[in-house]
């Protein structure tokens, strides 16, 4: 079942290349829907009491190099897999309705991207993870570059062209990813002593790696994950790429790919390099905090709606990193929930931006206004998304941020206090986006038009997910909890050894 | 001398060499008759196929040939097979190529086979003399082939430049051999190793200077920086099919020969040559990748990228362990496939458009010519080492070898080089997929390469029209050329997804030196 789910999008993408042009989109959409159905099936089948890997597949792939084809889901990845399937389902359907030019290549690339992303979440072998992680990027290079549109840019900045923006993005992100490749190989070979071992299960605990090896390999991995998020200081590719990208592809990119970075920390870095994690915990917390503040401040100064979304992602990913590096189960639980929340919010937001662009001719929020006039349904959907984005109490985002801050508060009070400021800023930029677009006086060149029923169905479905999650966030928390503790186990275990002289560093065992 | 014993000749072991030698005569004879133009290339392909068959038949045999001047083992055969495959693709590409037509298809085929023969000998050589003979036999036909587009100044310049630089390299190498012989008193690899190991001569100045000169001589052939200056010029000037052949086949044979020479004959000196070769590898990675950044000519770009790739591959020799050698063989085979996929497209576009080998020749083919766009895309992604292609597995293999051999920093250098290289590989892909096709120039000249209706082929201004190139073309030829590119691209992806067969093959080859 797992394997079918993993390869179905790619197969559908290939099949879409073979069928008649007008069917292309629907074949791809059927593939994405099938994947979603399988993902739901796996969720139903999931045993939440177990911390280990379920639905495991483990076969030799390149025995001479010690690389195994090893897949499985645990409590952390199951919801990210589901998020991937939901995001791609929505985006693929959306694209099928709109039918981009050269649809065959487009849907093939979407299919490859989905398979690669699912692969990154499912991989249980370090090198397989790196492979899928790198592979994710390639289709987006083509999607952004070929189907992207020129953007006028900020005043004085000049036109941003898709080609140069995507090359920048790929080089930025691959710098991290390739370092990670070297780091992964080094970890496997050093730990294996003769026969390389890349199984995450066997590497867990970090006993096989000396502290000095862990230290440099940690940064190689951190580089990959932080760029992917993107975190403050390595976010340079984000503004250009976000402004030129086709929005349907950007929706999945923003919703899911950034999460692979945060997932990587939880899945790979914490368990395999525990000593280095403890050593660099505060550095990462500072980076996360800087991302939160910078992202929030930038988000409320931007006039491009795409950049508001982009910088808010920087801030949200900062929150998630903060939760992960609290190194406590509640912080990490909150991080997992927040990953799902942010993904499920950003997809409808991006799709709504498509509609706004169609009605106003661009993404400049100073040129919008009054769109709510004749479009009550669109306005309502947008409002729910906005409320979730600003983490309104009652939304799942609120719960996620609460868990994260709770975890950080018990660990490092100062960080929690500063981070909570950002929640207030989030309310400001989210509401600003909504008001500028929907309220105010309607401009003459802006057309207030209701959302079409097919688009409405897609956005409505996603909004229904947001609402459902708000009512019952436990669906995520209770499944992820066991796995999160398992992943954090190594950090807690090696704490007394690594930081015995530094007692305030040490996570306080099990809080419950 | 009374009981003169005739030497036993192992005909089976020598059969690839014999087949190639006979093939050269056969193909050369074809040129004497006025036969249809496809006969000589078909014969060349036939000879290559027979030789490949004989190599596969001899796979697994491990024995000394000709008084141990040659060593028949999987390592040599692997290099031979790569060279043969490259030669076959070159033959297909050279059909109808003005250069090959000028030289006469028979002569061109014979030169090509001569060069392959040199590669087979070089890859099997375990004696300084047979090594040198192989190297020269490989090089001399290449000098001529580079200059074979006799109506183009660039081609003549390229041939001359290659000849001069190549001779400097050979002379340096030969001097180094002389010094090694002087120090060890033997030309046989095994005896050299024994002499150097026993006599404690490893630190002898003579030996060290000899080793350095040998390394420099081979670095010229392998276009390792800082001995690379000829590469971009020669690559650009030579007829493109010849460039393709040089880029992949020469590398395969010379790298295997280098590995055998350094790891067998100079094995006792490993600690001395390792840092030197590591430095060469690092410089090549830096120079190649930075040099390629500003290139607009695809052939120059591939030339510089070849320098960087040679640096990556040298890492497999530097670490001097079995994994390194296996990684080297794997990477050579993968490199052959991905580079040829790109060169096929360059050749086709060179004939279809008037842009020659400029990057702009590829603009817009993502929309109009998917059968060309995909091979070049896959080739470039593979060169950049992205997953899903054999290039990724190759890099993985090489980096694993460097970590195992305690040269982790070289592995990191490979990775950083790869990052830089993305800038120029992606530039090409941007031209392929993200730019509209330039307005075709309507010229009444006949099509040269069975061009598609979207892109009426025109005679490039750089190529002086020759009688041969004005003949109308059969449609089949184009299918064959494009097909070769598609096959290479499919193989690149296939070995990226299911690398086991190629890894096993490389492991067989890599373990035959028993390091």
Order of the strands making up the biggest sheet of chain B: 1-2
Uncertain residue segments of chain A: 495-512
Largest interface: A-B, 37 and 39 residues
Average per-residue pLDDT of chain B, rounded, comes to 85
Based on CA atoms alone, the radius of gyration of chain B comes out at 22 Å
Number of strands of chain A: 2
Which range does the strand content of chain A fall in? under 5%
Helix content of chain A: over 70%
Order of helices and strands of chain A: HHEEHHHHHHHHHHHHHHHH
Looking at the chains present, what oligomeric state does this protein adopt? heterodimer
Calculate Rg of chain A over CA atoms. Answer: 22 Å
**In whole angstroms, how far apart are the ends of chain B?**
39 Å
Q: Write down the domain tally of chain A.
A: 1
* Percent of residues in β-strands of chain B: under 5%
Helix content of chain B: over 70%
Q: How many β strands of chain B by DSSP?
A: 2
Average pLDDT of chain A: 85
What does this entry show, briefly?
The complex is a heterodimer of chains A (512) and B (515). With 512 residues, chain A is mainly alpha-helical. Chain A has helices spanning 2-18, 24-44, 77-98, 103-122, 126-147, 162-192, 200-203, 211-228, 238-244, 247-272, 274-299, 305-325, 329-360, 376-389, 396-411, 413-438, 453-471, 474-498; strands at 54-62, 67-73.
């Amino acid at each position: 079942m797992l394997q079918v789910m993993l390869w179905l999008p790619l197969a559908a993408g290939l099949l879409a290349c073979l069928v008649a042009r007008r069917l292309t989109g629907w074949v791809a959409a059927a593939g994405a829907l099938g994947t979603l159905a399988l993902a739901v099936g796996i969720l139903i089948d999931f045993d939440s009491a177990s911390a280990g890997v379920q639905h495991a597949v483990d076969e030799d792939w390149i025995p001479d190099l010690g690389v195994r084809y090893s897949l499985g889901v645990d409590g952390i990845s199951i919801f990210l897999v589901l998020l991937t399937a939901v995001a791609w389902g929505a985006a693929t359907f959306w694209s099928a309705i709109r039918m981009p030019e050269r649809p065959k290549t487009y849907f093939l690339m979407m299919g490859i991207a989905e398979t690669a992303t699912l692969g990154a979440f499912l991989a249980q072998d370090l090198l397989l993870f790196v492979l899928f992680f790198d592979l994710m990027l390639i289709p987006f290079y083509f999607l952004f570059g070929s189907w992207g549109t020129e953007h006028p840019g900020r005043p004085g900045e000049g036109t941003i062209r898709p080609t140069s923006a995507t090359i920048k993005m790929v080089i930025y992100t691959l710098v991290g990813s390739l370092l990670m490749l070297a780091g992964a190989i080094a970890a496997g070979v050093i730990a294996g002593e003769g026969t390389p071992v890349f199984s995450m299960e066997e590497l867990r605990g970090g006993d096989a790696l000396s502290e000095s090896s862990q230290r440099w390999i940690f940064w190689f991995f951190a580089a990959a994950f932080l760029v992917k998020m993107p975190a403050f200081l390595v976010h340079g590719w984000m503004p250009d790429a976000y402004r030129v990208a086709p929005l349907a592809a950007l929706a999945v990119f923003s919703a899911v790919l950034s999460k692979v970075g945060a997932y990587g920390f939880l899945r790979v870095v914490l368990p395999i390099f525990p000593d280095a994690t403890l050593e660099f915990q505060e550095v990462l917390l500072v980076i996360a905090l800087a991302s939160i503040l910078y992202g929030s401040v930038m988000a409320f100064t931007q006039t491009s709606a795409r950049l508001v979304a982009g910088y808010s992602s920087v801030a949200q990913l900062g929150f998630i990193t903060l939760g992960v590096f609290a190194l406590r189960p509640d912080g990490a639980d909150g991080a997992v929930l927040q990953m799902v929340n942010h993904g499920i919010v950003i997809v409808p937001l991006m799709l709504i931006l498509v509609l706004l662009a169609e009605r106003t001719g661009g993404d400049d929020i100073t040129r919008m206004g009054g769109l709510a006039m004749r479009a009550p349904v669109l306005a309502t959907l947008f409002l729910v998304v906005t409320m979730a984005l600003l983490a309104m109490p009652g939304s799942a985002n609120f719960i996620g941020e609460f868990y994260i801050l709770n975890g950080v508060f018990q660990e490092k009070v100062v960080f929690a206090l500063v981070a909570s400021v950002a929640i207030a800023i989030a309310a400001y930029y989210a509401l600003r986006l909504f008001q500028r677009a929907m309220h105010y006086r309607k401009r003459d060149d802006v057309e207030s038009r209701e959302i079409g029923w097919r688009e409405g169905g897609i956005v409505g479905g996603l909004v229904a997910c947001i609402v459902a999650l708000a009512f019952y966030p436990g669906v995520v928390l209770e499944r992820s909890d066991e796995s999160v503790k398992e992943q954090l186990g190594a950090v807690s275990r090696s704490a007394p050894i690594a930081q015995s002289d530094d007692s305030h560093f040490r996570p306080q065992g099990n809080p419950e | 001398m009374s009981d003169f014993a005739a030497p036993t000749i192992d005909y089976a072991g020598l059969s690839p060499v014999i087949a190639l030698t006979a093939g050269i005569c056969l193909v050369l004879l074809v040129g004497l008759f006025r036969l249809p133009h496809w006969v000589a290339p078909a014969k060349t392909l036939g000879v290559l196929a027979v030789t490949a068959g004989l190599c596969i038949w001899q796979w697994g045999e491990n024995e000394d040939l000709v008084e141990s001047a040659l060593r028949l083992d999987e390592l040599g055969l692997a290099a031979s097979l790569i060279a043969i495959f490259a030669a076959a693709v070159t033959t297909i590409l050279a059909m109808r190529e003005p250069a090959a037509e000028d030289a006469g298809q028979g002569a061109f085929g014979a030169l090509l086979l001569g060069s392959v023969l040199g590669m087979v000998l070089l890859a099997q050589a375990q004696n300084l003399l047979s090594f040198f003979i192989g190297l020269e036999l490989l090089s001399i036909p290449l000098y001529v082939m580079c200059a074979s587009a006799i109506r183009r100044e660039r081609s003549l310049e390229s041939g001359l430049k290659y000849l001069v630089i190549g001779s400097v390299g050979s002379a340096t190498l030969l001097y180094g051999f002389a010094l090694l012989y002087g120090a060890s008193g033997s030309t046989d690899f095994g005896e050299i190793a024994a002499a150097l190991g026993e006599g404690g001569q490893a630190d002898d100045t003579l030996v060290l200077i000899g080793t350095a000169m040998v390394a420099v001589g081979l670095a010229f052939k392998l276009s390792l920086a800082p001995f690379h200056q000829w590469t971009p010029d020669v690559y650009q000037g030579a007829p493109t099919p010849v460039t393709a052949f040089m880029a992949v086949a020469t590398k395969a044979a010379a790298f295997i020969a280098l590995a055998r020479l350094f790891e067998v004959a100079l094995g006792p000196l490993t600690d001395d040559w390792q840092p030197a070769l590591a430095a060469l590898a690092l410089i090549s990675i830096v120079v190649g990748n930075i040099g390629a950044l500003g290139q607009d000519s695809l052939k120059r770009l591939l030339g510089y990228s070849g320098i960087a790739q040679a640096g990556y591959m040298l890492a497999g020799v530097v670490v001097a362990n079995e994994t390194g050698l296996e990684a080297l063989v794997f990477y050579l085979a993968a490199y052959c496939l991905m580079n040829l996929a790109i060169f096929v497209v360059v050749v086709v576009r060179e004939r279809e458009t008037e842009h020659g080998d400029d990057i702009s020749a590829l603009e817009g083919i993502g929309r109009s010519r998917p059968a060309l766009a995909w091979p070049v895309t896959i080739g470039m992604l593979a060169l950049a080492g992205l997953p899903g292609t054999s290039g990724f597995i190759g890099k993985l293999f090489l980096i694993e070898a460097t970590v195992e051999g305690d040269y982790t920093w070289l592995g990191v250098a490979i990775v950083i080089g790869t990052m830089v290289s993305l800038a120029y590989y992606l530039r090409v892909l941007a031209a392929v997929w993200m730019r509209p096709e330039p307005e075709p120039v309507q010229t009444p000249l006949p099509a040269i390469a069975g061009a598609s209706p979207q892109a009426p082929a025109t005679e490039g201004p750089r190529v002086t029209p020759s009688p041969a190139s004005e003949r109308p073309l059969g449609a089949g030829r184009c299918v064959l050329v494009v097909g070769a590119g598609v096959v290479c691209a499919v193989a690149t992806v296939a070995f990226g997804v299911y690398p086991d067969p190629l890894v096993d093959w490389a492991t067989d080859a890599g373990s035959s030196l028993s390091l």
